[in-house]
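User: Thanks for the earlier help. One more: Sel1 repeat family protein. Can you show the sequence and predicted structure together?

Assistant: Of course, both are below.
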Amino acid sequence: MKRALLLLLLPLALAACSPDLSPEAAREAAYEAEAAGDVRAALRYYKAAAEGGDLGAMQTLAEAYERGHHRARGPVTRDGEDASRYMAIVALPGQARFWRGRYERERDERAFGGDPGVLLSVAQDLDRRGSTPAERDSARAIRQRLLDAKHTPAMVGEALRTMQDDSLRAFALLEEATDLGSAQACLLQRVLVHAREGYEHVMAQQRAGIEPTTIPASMEARHIDEIEACPNIPTDRDDMGAQVVIRQLRERGTPEARTRLDSLRILGVFERHPHLDPATLS
């Protein structure tokens, strides 16, 4: 009886604690709370976003309450490491079921309406570990439908899925998605190419009998220019583009990092891209 009553009261309690923010603003506030390590505030803002119809926020809440922790996603470092953090939470009885049910109902309704972003989410859910052959077939059919429609997030996802087995097709998809204006595709393409160039630089040093070092500042400056040339990169996102590289160098604070920043300044990087100047980068 108490459990049933809690489930009935839960939506009212969530609505009462939700800040009066747009879903977009609430999600940004959640990211800021994550960065500050305040998991309670982060979940509160995710709930506000979910109440405003943000499907991703609903899924985030469902997964957090099911697992008993919230994954605060961070940018991938220049070394390829995931900077995500796992923050323990307290889940009340019924919260996981409430948000999972709400997410799936909203997802299915939007999918039947033909929303491409939601269809991609459905394909990802169907293709999860342990799915049946029929579910995987459905996921493939949905992905192909989205690819035929030139849905750029689906093109990026397909490139990631096929990169190891068919890199030529994967890069062709990223190139096409970039031409269609996808910042995500462009950034991924640049990162992969730059990683390969860095690897080739190290291997060339080894073949010459030289102790491998990091890539030259001139190469890194060119990489930054190429990343900044990607279309539609939000200038206010600190987890995208070359801002990640510059911020990591600044936060590292070692003599080598400071020397690299000085070299990039001499090479005109911060003159060409003033928003990257470590002196003003937030």
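User: Great, one quick takeaway?

Assistant: The first strand starts at residue 69 and ends at 72.
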